[in-house]
Design brief:
Family: Belongs to the queuine tRNA-ribosyltransferase family.
Strand order of the largest sheet: 4-14-13-12-11-10-6-5
Strand content: 15-25%
Largest sheet: 8 strands, parallel
Number of helices: 15
CATH superfamily of the largest domain: Queuine tRNA-ribosyltransferase-like
Pathway: tRNA modification; tRNA-queuosine biosynthesis
Number of strands: 16
CATH topology of the largest domain: TIM Barrel
Bound molecules: zinc ion
CATH architecture of the largest domain: Alpha-Beta Barrel
Structural class: alpha/beta
Keywords: Glycosyltransferase, Metal-binding, Queuosine biosynthesis, Transferase, tRNA processing, Zinc
Pfam families: TGT
Protein name: Queuine tRNA-ribosyltransferase
Helix content: 40-55%
């Protein structure tokens, strides 16, 4: 097994890319979807089940883990992989985004951010240096630079100064990360919806020579059309030979549209979170299992799906356990959703390899256009 981090671009079809990231903890097939394991667990899923859906890599949240149970404690217990029983690659975010969305009494300076925990009010600081140290203690394979996710909408001057701060923090992140063979630090492009700022950001990051790059500041309420507008040019500003990670995306059609535009990696809580609230994603669009129309339906969620929820259970059962508040409801729907998301990724990887991405995409949209099967 390799001892270093590397990315190989294997094929392209239009702007869509097929590739492979090698790490000492295993290979990541790209385009890749990363399930989110916020608090050292993908909620409602055993790690071996997450793997069975086809996931090569998980995402962990620095903000949550530093507050509870604490990065030092996880390090003492052997690191995040051993702690949560996931031996394959893990990517951790820098904590910055969640400080801004979850913490209380935030104060941001050139140095970093001080804040109070949303759990117990305790005071903490995150800086590029402390974020690198926490992610090192967690032992993640892909570490994200500490940045400020520019809010949306942002006036151009605000987006410009926010991006410039993130670029200074990217350099401090790189210096603090140091040389860690087998681990990779990704820089994060900012610049909101302004093309020249995205270009400036890409140039600043590229001069720092990161092994991978993220496209940040999207999926923050701008809507799919505005996001795709940025993705029409932003990925191509980043080096061809490095993986590109679009943070926090998305719905199935967002994911397909992002891959079509040259994105290699994505993460989102949507499949797991929706699984716990009774929403299933299928080839034929979203299905709300709460709906009374499923109460007597003996058919599976999706007759073509090979996940346990679809192979062994009826819509009527899934409806019943959701209504009854049974835990298996969240377990089965989360499994199905993660399986479906990984099927999309697998389908796109095969299509890019075969040079048939456009046809695959047409079929993907046609099936969704049909809508759910008629009620019994
Ligand atoms: Zn299924």
């Amino acid at each position: 097994m390799t001892r270093t981090f590397s990315f190989t671009l294997e094929a392209t079809d239009g702007a869509a890319r097929l590739g492979r990231i090698e790490t000492p903890r295993g290979e990541i097939r790209t385009p890749a979807f990363m399930p989110v394991g916020t608090a050292a667990t993908v909620k409602a899923m055993m790690p071996e089940s997450v793997r069975a859906t086809g996931a090569d890599i998980l995402l962990g949240n620095t903000y949550h883990l530093m507050l509870r149970p604490g990065a030092e404690r996880i390090a003492r217990l052997g690191g995040l992989h051993a702690f949560m029983n996931w031996e394959r690659p893990i990517l951790t975010d820098s904590g910055g985004f969640q400080v801004m969305s979850l913490a209380d009494l935030r104060k941001m300076t050139e140095r970093g951010v001080t804040f109070r925990s949303h759990i117990d009010g305790s005071k903490h600081e995150l800086t590029p240096e402390s974020s690198m140290e926490i992610q090192r203690l967690l032992g993640s394979d892909i570490v994200m630079a500490f940045d400020e996710c520019t809010t949306f909408p942002a006036e151009k001057e605000v987006a410009a100064s926010s991006m410039a701060l993130s670029m200074r923090w990217a350099e401090r992140s790189r210096d603090a990360f140091g040389d860690r063979p087998g681990h990779a630090l990704f820089g994060i492009q900012q610049g909101s919806v302004y093309r020249d700022l995205r270009q400036e950001s890409a140039e600043a990051l590229t001069s720092l020579d990161f092994p991978g790059y993220a496209i940040g500041g999207l999926a923050v309420g701008e809507g799919q059309e505005a996001m795709f507008d940025v993705l029409d040019y932003a990925p191509a500003m980043l080096p061809q030979d490095r993986p590109r990670y679009l943070m926090g995306v998305g719905k199935p059609d967002d994911i397909v549209g992002a891959v079509k535009r040259g994105v290699d990696m994505m993460d989102c809580v949507l499949p797991s979170r929706s699984g716990r609230t009774g929403q299933a994603f299928t080839r034929r669009g979203a299905v709300n299992i709460k709906n009374a129309r499923h109460a007597d339906d003996p058919r599976p969620l999706d007759e073509q799906c090979t996940c346990p929820a679809c192979r062994h259970y009826s819509r009527a059962y899934l409806h019943h356990v959701f209504r009854a508040g049974e835990m298996i409801s969240g377990m089965l729907l989360t499994w199905h959703n993660l399986h479906y998301f990984q099927q999309i990724m697998q389908g796109m990887r095969e299509a890019i390899a075969a040079g048939t991405f456009e046809a695959w995409e047409r079929e993907f949209h046609a099936a969704r256009g049909e809508g759910d099967i008629d009620p019994v």
